[in-house]
Amino acid sequence: MASRRAVLGVSAAALAGAAGAVAAVARGGDPAPAQPPATVPFHGRHQAGIATPKQRYAVFVAFDLVTRDVAVLRNLMRDWTEVADRVTRGQRPLPRGNAPAGAAVDSGDGDGLAPARLTMTFGFGPGVFDARFGLAARRPPALRDLPAFAGDELDPAYTGGDLVAQVCADDPQLASYAARQLRSRVMGIARLRWVQRGFQGYPADGGTPRNLFGQKDGTANPAPGTPEFADTVWVPDGADPAWMAGGTFLVLRRIRMSLATWDLTPLAEQDAILGRHRDTGAPLSGGSEFTAPDLDRTGPGGAPVIAADSHVRLARPFKMFRRGFNYDDGPQGDEPHAHPAGTEPHDHANHRHDYDAGLLLAVYVRDPGAQFVPAQEALARADRLTTFTTHVGSGVWAVPPGAEPGGYVGQALLG
Amino acid sequence: MASRRAVLGVSAAALAGAAGAVAAVARGGDPAPAQPPATVPFHGRHQAGIATPKQRYAVFVAFDLVTRDVAVLRNLMRDWTEVADRVTRGQRPLPRGNAPAGAAVDSGDGDGLAPARLTMTFGFGPGVFDARFGLAARRPPALRDLPAFAGDELDPAYTGGDLVAQVCADDPQLASYAARQLRSRVMGIARLRWVQRGFQGYPADGGTPRNLFGQKDGTANPAPGTPEFADTVWVPDGADPAWMAGGTFLVLRRIRMSLATWDLTPLAEQDAILGRHRDTGAPLSGGSEFTAPDLDRTGPGGAPVIAADSHVRLARPFKMFRRGFNYDDGPQGDEPHAHPAGTEPHDHANHRHDYDAGLLLAVYVRDPGAQFVPAQEALARADRLTTFTTHVGSGVWAVPPGAEPGGYVGQALLG
């Protein structure tokens, strides 16, 4: 019962897969995923799931704390750390402290599944630093609620949360199982706020994966392991507060895409709106996918080839690391419900049969206010692409550094 | 532009994968999936996606017809057949007849993805045979709306539909892409009714996959290719109506599982409720997973070892082929909405924060009324497992035989 699988550890195949992932990173863009089974080490200077090559499947889960006791929060982070350490290695978690007599250690739906590059990444929202836990003085200055952006239509069902867990794997059942083990530890401590699920398909040739607008997404990403990546993502030693050194910040935006409208837009228009050729990912100014866009190049008549309101031009000044996942949740909205006779006519702001698909844009940066906020302000103001998108969910979390064996995620904050 | 990938066709790896899948079938239970890339042939006596080893990911999509013209329905089935034939081979669909000038042939998010064992399977609901299309006389007698079962809490958002498409693949992005190409063909013809998405994780040892109660699911399934499978699933030659020969019927039930309650139930109770050991899948009467349950065996005190109200005992008399997928959609329910001042108090039957996870139970049988209905009646009446489940969606469709090259799915009905 202690082990989810008979054979654990990093296999030769996993090592080969990891080597392949590194090779793919070196080619630029997002790497193709390694073949499962592969184990991503949980411990380290940084939390896994950030520089880790994107897996095929992601579950983001947010919780609101109901406890007001920092010791309870500390125990929860210890507990989650133990769960993540064991489950990412293919082991069962240890028994829950509050389990009823005779209950199984876990739900069993993860039995026998290979680790599938599972990662579990934890973050603290602004609420952790409010009056409840005595941590206000240790709040990172960079952790602030995001401002309202033009066009935002945020739904509380996809916004905010005191705690977030990003659970990624190449096996959707393993991701579901792992998220469930986290939920099983919060009874009386925190309340589930929302769950969002995304996926990423990988071209067979190892090329940059695409979003639901058909665009290669992540071309401009810094490559994990490079100085540019570190400078973009990781909070450096000596930063304020010290407990965030080696950490980062997660901004998660749920960006609904108007797929039907987009699909009716001529391809040449789609390309002009992005500033790149959809098929190849090459900038309209020429070259191939990884050629730098030539923003000064003009076409017949003197107009810039990459338009002033194109996504590429507006987004280019801002450095961030995108680790997004597509989502396709189908028609959404109110469930049918009856009103007693005599109820007055009223507006449900009913979005039923809105088709909810798009991008769970997970952005990792060392300073959201300096990197994400000005980028999103520029895009919300002028990017033509935004006429096909609506931001319907949002959140920001401080993602503490990784845990070493014997420690836990958040230890430098919570002691 | 005509090809989604540079290299198509069945590779050596795909053939090896198919051989592996056959080997796994011979061991009983649901087979482990072949490694992608692999192409599942679309054409054949039967539609693909039924006897096909279950893929990792499924999207079920239902539509209601708005056309009343059988010729339009015929053209849609021709169009869908062409889409499925091409996309399952890694090719782009042909241009849409109603596409605006300059529009891309497809949405591009499938570019470069390997076929990932994609299958697309189509079915006709009872509505196809109502007064609209002149097909009432050709309605299969076995295609009837299911009766209401005890405990049903069916939500229209997951129930019914004139047409259904089951889209399965090992790559969730490819499944999303393929379903989108079907949607792109229905404008003015049909309206999207619902989308349901499921997944299946596969134990690394090739064992039977598990549902979200941690149980091996599919142990009693007949093995595809055997006479028992054919007798359970395929409508035989000479049946009434003749156009269904080689077809089958799909019953899809969305079974919400009370995961939190289940997880608090002692393991011994879970086993008693199922009639099997969760860990091994062996019946409580002894042996291993594929040992036939000994329903006559009694324990101390003379009580049957496999209880009278256990799932195994109640389900055993009924022959069906289960091709279910787990789902884990998170908290569900009404979106927040405001009422104008003066609105009277009223009940929204608000299920917000109900956690919606469970099983998309796809059952393939040659006669739902003789195979599925009595089974579900017996289970709904007495199975203790049903105290942990709620059926919240339902549908039944006639699944016509497969198409041969040059033909289309439903041709024997629609001419």
UniProtKB/TrEMBL annotation, chains A, B:
Instruction: Report the GO molecular function annotations.
Output: heme binding; metal ion binding; peroxidase activity
What InterPro entries is this protein classified in? Dimeric_a/b-barrel, Dyp_perox_C, Dyp_perox_N, Dyp_peroxidase, TAT_signal
Q: Where is the composition biased (Basic and acidic residues)?
A: 334-350
Q: Pfam families annotated for this entry?
A: Dyp_perox_C (PF20628), Dyp_perox_N (PF04261)
Identify the residues that the record assigns to the Dyp-type peroxidase N-terminal domain, covering every copy. Answer: 47-200
> Which domain of life, per UniProt?
Bacteria
Cofactor requirements of the protein: heme b
> What is one term from the GO cellular component aspect held by the record?
cytosol
Q: Which residues form the signal peptide?
A: 1-23
- The Dyp-type peroxidase C-terminal domain covers 208-403
Q: Which SUPFAM superfamilies match?
A: Dimeric alpha+beta barrel
Q: Where is this region: Disordered?
A: 281-302, 327-350
Q: Which UniProt keywords apply?
A: Heme, Iron, Metal-binding, Oxidoreductase, Peroxidase, Signal
Give the protein family.
Answer: Belongs to the DyP-type peroxidase family.
Name assigned to this protein: Dye decolorizing peroxidase
Native species of this protein?
Micromonospora citrea
